[in-house]
Amino acid sequence: MPTTIPTTARSRRAATNRPPQHNTPAHLSDLCPPERPAAYPREPSYQSPRSSAEPAQGFSPKELGHLSRVDQRLEAAYSAQEGTRSRLSMLYAQLSTFAPFPVREVAMKALRLIGQALGFGSASERAEHEAVQRAISSRVKAVKEIHTRFIRDEERAVRRQFRGRTFVANPQTPKVLTQVAIPEGKAFVSFTKLRSLINQEMGDLGSRIRMICPSSERIILYRQRPNKSWDSLELAWRRPGKVDVVRNGVELGNLFNDDALLAAKAFAQGKCFSLKERVQPADAVWKVA
Questions:
Q1: How does the average pLDDT of the chain come out, rounded?
Q2: What's the Cα-to-Cα distance from 145 to each of 35, 66, 237, 262, rounded to whole Å?
Q3: CA distance 138 to 214
Q4: Is the Cα dihedral 170, 172, 178, 181 positive or negative?
């Protein structure tokens, strides 16, 4: 039976009466150059169809007011992340036109002739493939850098203040609260820990499985098919505790890192699996972690 791993359902954030944010963090434009409007799906907002007048359960009006002010401070940075991430869809679309081949970026030039000998394209095609991979790494790094420079400290403060607090979300739940929460019963796994756990799993699977990290924000698993071609699964940093999932250059969705570990195991073991969007029930309980 194919393994089905539920992804978090994507939903559009409800409109609010929040005033526009004018105090854009200094030098934010350096990390997010002007581009076309964001096309990448917004972060899941974990909302339920409750009355907009009903506060998120588990938080007082005073606490929600504080979190809404944090939202205002982070609005420009979250928007910058979406704009930066939007370019990734185009880059992954380019990547999907190339046959996967497990070569570390630092060794690509030296091993390009090997790729040609195995039928993985001409030298010019390999060079183009390398350029796309570098561009993706740069863009994912920029998404993380925006978080590091403009978001991380605010979110850490929210985590420290409310860690372990559970709530049921509604359309007015502050975005920052949804960014630091996971479904109750799940475990928070950092990207560094995820990479370490996957590396441990890869140890006993032989040469048909390769794990390549083009950058510290990307993990790409390759498995060899019977015809000697390769299949790839990428897990790219999205936010703390969550990754984007890309199969052979095709974006499949995003997963919490503990679910991403299950996907990586299934892929490495040669199992068939798919990602299925999961719509959270109206009474779903979330926990700040």
A1: 78
A2: 18, 25, 11, 27
A3: 10
A4: negative
